[in-house]
Amino acid sequence: MSAARVSQRISAIAESATLAVDAKAKALKAAGRPVIGFGAGEPDFPTPDYIVQAAIEAAGQPRFHRYSPPAGCQS
């Protein structure tokens, strides 16, 4: 594989939307704007019990063991 081919592939990789949103939120905060960033990171609270229980129930049902359809696909 030539260096030019690797460079073309690397240049085709898109920026992470999550990291872009996070960077924008940090920039706005640094500029003194009141921002709540929802782009990256973990919450500072535990997952509510009703969500945990729903996930446990869903995991026990084989119909939920598949990937969701890709954007634009009609099932």
> What's the pLDDT, averaged over the residues?
84
The tally of strands reads 0
SSE class: mainly alpha
Number of continuous helical runs: 3
* Secondary structure: helix percent: 40-55%
N- and C-termini, Cα separation: 39 Å
What gyration radius follows from the Cα positions, in whole Å? Answer: 20 Å
Order of helices and strands: HHH
Enumerate the spans where pLDDT stays under 50 for 5 or more consecutive residues. Answer: none
List the domain count as a whole number.
1
Strand content: under 5%
- Which term fits the overall shape? flat
Largest sheet: none
Write up this protein:
- This protein is mostly helical.
- The chain has one domain.
- The chain has three helices and no strands.
- The radius of gyration is 20 Å and the shape is flat.
- The two termini are 39 Å apart.
Keyword list:
mainly alpha, 3 helices, 0% strand, 75 residues
Summarize the structure.
It contains three helices and no strands. It has 75 residues and is an all-alpha fold.
Topology, pairings included?
Elements: H1 3-11, H2 17-30, H3 49-59
